[in-house]
Amino acid sequence: MRILYVITAAEFGGAPHHVIKLMEHMVEQGHAVGLVAAPEPRLMEEAEKLEVSVFPNPHFVGFGKPVEDIKSLWGVYQAIKSFKPDLVHAHSTKAGFAARLCCFILRFKPVLFTAHGWAFTEGRPYWKRWLLAQAERLAARATTRIICVSEHDRELALQFGVARQDKLVVVHNGITPWLPTQGGGARIRRGLGLQNTTTITFVGRLVPQKDVLTLLSAMKDLPNGKLLMIGDGELRPQVEDFIHQNELEDRVVLLGTRYDVPDILADSDIFVLPSRWEGLPYVVIEASMAGLPVVATRVGGIPELVEDGVTGFLVPPGNPEALSEAIQRLLDNKDLRHQMGRAGREKALREFTSEHMLVETDKVYEGVAGSEHTADHSATLI
Asked: Is residue 72 within 8 Å of 57, Cβ to Cβ?
């Protein structure tokens, strides 16, 4: 089978990581793989290692730039014509629209779309959510199957009438199981003077979605513990200003982009994610696999990852008081941290492995490849 992946990926995050795992698996299975994506360095590097056919699309930028949007469509159109796929699988909102419009124009099927958290999820004004849902509903008519990464996203799609129930399938994200070995991040702890300090770790882009300023506000109320922030993004100047203005320099460490996140997680004590909205974040699975208790907001698919009171604590978004209270409970109780960390790892191993994700994705591919839509590449709208 010839499979073409289409993804915006202007920044490296969960969706690019997901696509890399899919490409690795499909190459191992002997399929021919192509990739249309913004030239994000890490994604391009991994694609080169896998020797997939890459079609860089520098016009995959943010919404609201009509000229760039049109140019990005042409890039996807040309890639489909050149690669001649048997199946197109799009990821991320903008790439999803571009790929499905091009497939509609070319009268090509099957085309799949994975929603890594809907654009019309909670956290936006309802009128904007409704408009975005209508756009997805239109695009869904030219889509063979829609993969949701959480039950929450599937229910949200049904609630907004995006597609029929039989067109929506849930495939949870998953990672390769690994055994956390204490000491991998000891060098980092020594360098930062954190040997005898309880560490709270955040991993994510410094963008509005992750609501890192609420996390920093929560840190002001905590009498102990140090926060390690891994990641970079547009809010970095605001984060630095907040830290300086609130005299948190000795409590918060900005580590920027790191490639040794598993080591740092293995030597951390608590993981925190204060997002305003999410799909099914890989980083929570990674933290759980590392045996960490998780404090996160009750948004998107996070409640499917974190069992409140068992593997961590869930709090309302945008609430620094609730966030600090949950973190403090774990700072005060080492036994509880270890108990929740063990339970979280067991849950991750049981439900969120890459093997399970890839097996379920294979089933979706086999299902659409064997459907009547593949036989004639018809553009009949469902």
From this structure: yes
